[in-house]
User: Fold this.
Amino acid sequence: MKILHLIASTGVGGAEKHLLDLTLQQQEFGMDVCVALPEEGALSQALQAHNIKYVLIRKGSRFNLLALWSLRQAIHQVQPDIVHAHMLKSATMVSYASRSVPCVATAHNIVKHLKPFRKCHHVICVSDMVFDSLSQLGYPQAKMTVVHNAVDTHVFNTERHEEVRRQLDWQNRLIVLIVARLVPAKGQVYALDALAQLVLRFPNIQLVLVGEGTDRDKLQQQAHKLGLEKHLSMLGSRRDVVDLLAATDIYLQPSIKEGFCIAFLEAMATGIACIGTQTGAIPTMLESGVNGILIPPGDVSAIANAVSTIATNPELRTRYAQAAKLTAQTKFSPQKQALETINVYNKELNH
Assistant:
């Protein structure tokens, strides 16, 4: 089977990591895989490092005629059996660029408009919440399948815990990590409000934010107002997230809205005690009291209480961490994700 994946971005966020993991696994299964993307960047470098073919198409809006012509040329060049579009812009572009090749699209986030998916043959939803959002808009359920994202669990572990903590001068600190874009939907503002409560009980606590976004200045101002500058580290975008996770004591995902949240699954795969909100696919990963703590979105007291519970009980922290890692290894493996995705392809090709 020959597959052409299409993505309109070139960074290495959640959707891009999903695409990279999926193409790697499909290639291992003997599929002929190629990725179409608009320019060179971190994603193309990662594809090249893993010997995954890619083609460049013109940049432009989803209705840009030159961009659509360029995509049409790429499809003609690759001659795929199926095109797999990732995110809204790509799904729209495929529907206008080619009608002759079946198109599967992945919806990575809550869907608010049907238009990008109207001409797709099938939509893969990364969580039940994404599935429900599409269904409520009237999209036929027979044309949707939930396939959860996955992570390569072999990459994530705590083997370098002490070494990385020494390098970062994190010894004798209680590290609470959040990996997410700095935008309102990710809920860092609530974590900072909770931090104001937590420093009274844990003077060695350090909230570490990894990611960039429009809320950076707002969060810095909030930390200044609360007198928390010494307890907040804003590291920006990082390429050593695997190491940062390895060195972390507690992982927190205070999101208000999520699609899947690959960062949370990576934390679980590392073997860290995790706290997550009841949004997106997080409740499908986390069973509160079994492999972590699940809390309502936007609840400052719940964040503070959950961090306190884990921080004051080392035995519980270890139990949650071990159970989280086992969940990631068994329920969210790349092999499972790839096989379920290939089943969707086969369904459409044999339709």
About this structure: The chain has a mean pLDDT of 92. The two ends are 16 Å apart (CA to CA). The first strand starts at residue 2 and ends at 7.
